[in-house]
Amino acid sequence: MKNYILKPFGYLLFFIIVSIALLPKENLYFYGETKLEKQNIVISNEKIISKFFGIDIQNAKIYYNSIYFGEIKKIDTKFFLLNNAIEINNLKVEDSFKNLLPSDIKDITVNYSIFDPLNLNIYANGEFGELKGSYNLIEKKISCELKASAKMKQDYRSILNQLKFDKGVYSYEYRF
User: What is the DSSP secondary-structure string of 32-88?
Assistant: First the structure.
């Protein structure tokens, strides 16, 4: 009796795992790239490596409005049934943008879970400090909290002046 219940569940789980593994992940990446192009963001010179549950993109050069913005050492995507993530490692911003953004962003992680289906959770750290936030898919609203580093407080005061400060944390909200 127990086998009649577990066997279909096992087949279903096997089917889901194989479906995710055989998913044309490169096509998903190229679809995302076309969506970014509509926002005038172009990713070029990247090396794409397919993995069992995701893809790696290495040494991607980023352009915004045809102006070189910076380079990303590695983008690691992970597609699982319950939780999907994009991890961006070592984003180096071009010198001409250093007045607007910190030049060295160590890690950015964007996470989507079916347990919180309306939000994308965002985590980032680098020379600016530590940032935690979320993007609500329905309201199209981003909310972030920044624990600024000493370097951020010293070199990027103009950015911090645009954020709300409360109890040692800078916060930001924006609707698209």
Answer: HHHHHHTTTEEEES-EEEEETTEEEEEEEEEEETTEEEEEEEEEEEEE-SSEEEEEE
